[in-house]
């Protein structure tokens, strides 16, 4: 998900008009401030994001392997989420929920992708790119952009100073995220089991969820990030 047009220090969902849980009941305007300014936090997060991709690319070129490409992406999601949550130091309910969504997704998908690449031995997308450092760098750079752009709502909610109470839209977002998580996990498992059967070599799965949609796993992925955005 993407978000924009946000003034520094304003919650993502301030437009909902809900009372911030961080504003004292006595009417005082004093609020809890984040440990770092939003712009500084985002710059540090972006630097860490692309720094990790650069290190991953360097090792991948040296070893001419793609085996830890997806693992690096998942670990970047986890690292940036935990880093902004811990440096913010507020641990508000909204922060914990949004961060938890990302951590569960990245842990589940990352471990699945690592298991798959270790079993398959390679990822055909990188057959030529891994032998060409410049071409390979494009994949790693795009992954860095994808991580930062997709994770931006969570980076912001972990950085802002105020956090409105949860409401109906948040519950809807959590419901959409949960449905997407189950959909993606089930679709991944069905396709993995299908490809394990030697009789299905070279075939595209057309059973289970895959009989209803060409890419149910991508549908689940989009649902989860829309759910995160709605909750953030």
Explained architecture:
With 232 residues, this protein is an all-alpha fold. It has 6 helices and no strands. The chain has helices at 38-63, 69-88, 93-120, 133-157, 168-196, 216-231. It is flat.
- Major sheet summary line: none
Give the overall shape: flat
Radius of gyration: 20 Å
Oligomer kind:
single chain
The mean pLDDT is 86
Helix content: 55-70%
Distance between the termini: 10 Å
Residue runs with pLDDT of under 50 for 5 or more positions: 1-34
Tally of alpha and pi helices: 6
* Secondary-structure element string: HHHHHH
Number of strands: 0
**Percentage of residues in strands:** under 5%
What's the arrangement of secondary structure elements?
Layout: H1 38-63, H2 69-88, H3 93-120, H4 133-157, H5 168-196, H6 216-231
Main attributes of the structure:
232 residues, mainly alpha, 6 helices, 62% helix, 0% strand
Quick summary of this structure?
The chain has 232 residues and is mainly alpha-helical. The chain is 62% helix and 0% strand.
């Amino acid at each position: 998900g993407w978000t924009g047009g946000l003034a520094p220090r304003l919650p993502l969902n301030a437009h909902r008009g809900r009372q911030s849980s961080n504003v004292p009941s006595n009417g005082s305007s004093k609020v809890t401030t984040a440990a770092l300014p939003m712009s500084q936090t985002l710059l540090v997060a972006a630097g860490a994001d692309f720094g990790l991709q650069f290190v991953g690319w360097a090792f991948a070129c040296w070893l001419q392997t793609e085996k830890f490409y997806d693992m690096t992406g998942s670990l970047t999601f986890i690292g940036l989420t935990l880093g902004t949550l811990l440096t913010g130091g507020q641990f508000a309910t909204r922060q914990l929920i949004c961060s938890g969504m990302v951590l569960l997704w990245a842990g589940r998908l990352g471990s699945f992708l690592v298991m798959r690449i270790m079993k398959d031995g390679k990822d055909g997308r990188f057959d030529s790119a891994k032998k060409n450092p410049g071409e390979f760098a494009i994949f790693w750079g795009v992954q860095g952009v994808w991580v930062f752009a997709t994770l931006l709502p969570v980076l912001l909610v972990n950085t802002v100073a105020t956090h409105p109470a949860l409401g109906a839209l948040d519950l809807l977002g959590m419901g959409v995220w949960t449905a997407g998580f189950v959909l993606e996990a089930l679709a991944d498992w069905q396709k993995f089991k299908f490809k394990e059967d030697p009789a299905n070599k070279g075939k595209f799965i057309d059973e289970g969820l895959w009989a209803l949609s060409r890419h149910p796993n991508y549908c689940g992925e989009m649902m989860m990030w829309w759910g995160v955005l709605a909750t953030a």
